[in-house]
Amino acid sequence: MTGRKKLSPDHLDMLKEIGNIGAGHAATALSKLLGKPIVLHIPSAAVASAADISMNDAEKHVAVSCIRVNHEMNGQFFMLFEVGQANRIVRELVPDGSVFDGGMGESAFCEISNILCGSYLSALSSFLGVTLTQAPPSLAIDMEGAILGEGLAELFLYDDSVFVMEAHLYDRESHDEWKCECLFLPSRESMDVLFNKLEGKLAP
Amino acid sequence: MIHVGLSEVKFASLPESLGITGLGSCVGVVLYNEARHIAGMAHVMLPDSALARSDRFSPGKFADTAVLKLVSVLTGKHGVSRAALKAKLAGGAEMFRTNRSSPLGHIGRRNITAVKQELDKLGIPIISEETGADYGRTIEFFTSSCTLRIRTVCKGEITL
Questions:
Q1: Bridging pattern class, strands B17-23 and B2-3
Q2: How far is B102 from chain A (nearest CA, A)?
Q3: How many A/B residue pairs have CB atoms within 8 Å?
Q4: Residue ranges of the alpha helices (H) in chain A?
Q5: Tell me: the pLDDT tens digits for A119-130?
Q6: What is the bridge-based pairing of β-strands B86-91 and B126-131?
Q7: A76 and chain B: CB distance < 8 Å anywhere?
């Protein structure tokens, strides 16, 4: 495939639906992990270009987990929490842990990213009929601009698209809420795979 | 402060300052002339313009084109001789703790190497630098003192 094909509103609807199905899986898995009735909302899901990624809050202190996706599609999945929110959710699992502890707290945070990424990928893979695998997460905790500038370097190189999903985790019992942002950056070739599979779904 | 966004190249003279917030693997390159209190700053994202897929890109995006742009504007428009230019650098970190095996490799390190090669070719001395490591930086260059102030989340503040 050569050149960039444009995703239509129908494609975007399907991608948003994949996000919602993934959120359903993730809520079930997180409820089990945290032992709480967790609901996961995706208030917004959009396709963004390099120019759209806002660096307005470049100094915001965030924890980001990055997971490499392989097999029939290649790409990167990022899960981003503001540090205070990250520590709050870590303490649900490890009462005296934090994302900085280099131990249980850190691995709890990475496990949450495994669940969110895995849920999204399983929705994507069953919808598109592709096999996907995920690598172990890497963690970075620092200024948002610094982390995304590096994480999305490929995006800026090729001016590709990234899927941005806001996710709100909500505990129905305690009414606690956590906000995070998930980004999925498929490689160029994988964008073509994705496009063709979505086209196939739309064809009569 | 004049904000230098991703891939931008900007210039300032007394009493202004130039800055970048949240610098990770990108490199902030400052070329300046002390006598005239003139400076330019580039926010370099990637090492080599040969990586570009098209001819249309901002010169600040790549190390080679960014340094050339800084030099051409400072020597051309501002009339500073190339021999009177000095450089200060910051950035080029590796933000993720484990190697993500990105197709771009160690992008921070490659950015720094590329900027240094380009400055070396042009005979511009690097007076000081705070580069590499694994943390983000917010930088500001003051044309009044020709100093570069670097702020980080956990390593505090230093001035070059």
A1: parallel
A2: 9
A3: 102
A4: 9-34, 83-93, 104-128, 144-151, 153-158, 188-202
A5: 999 999 999 899
A6: parallel
A7: yes
Give the integer Cα–Cα distance in Å for A135 and B120. Answer: 39
The ipTM value here is 0.86
- From chain A, pick out residues whose CB is under 8 angstroms from the CB of B46: 153, 156-157
Phi/psi of residue B76, each to 5°?
-80, -80
pLDDT digits (tens, 9 = 90+) for A159-191: 677 888 889 999 999 999 999 999 998 888 888
CATH number of the domain that residue B23 is part of = 3.30.1330.200
Q: d(Cα B143, Cα B128) in Å, to the nearest integer? A: 16
Measured between beta carbons, the chain A residues lying within 8 angstroms of B7 are: 156
**Cα(A9)–Cα(B19) distance, integer angstroms:** 39
Shortest CA distance from B151: residue in chain A: A59
Range of the domain at B77: 2-159
Indicate the number of domains in chain B: 1
Contact predicate B136/A146, CB 8 Å: yes
How many CA atoms lie less than 13 Å away from B13 in the CB half-sphere? 7
CA pair distance A39, A24, nearest whole angstrom: 8
Q: Is B23 on the interface with A (CB under 8 A)?
A: yes
Domains of chain A with bracketed CATH: 9-50+61-202 (3.40.1550.10)
DSSP state letters, A144-198:
HHHHHHHHTHHHHHHT-EEEEEEEEEEETTT--EEEEEEEEEE-HHHHHHHHHHH
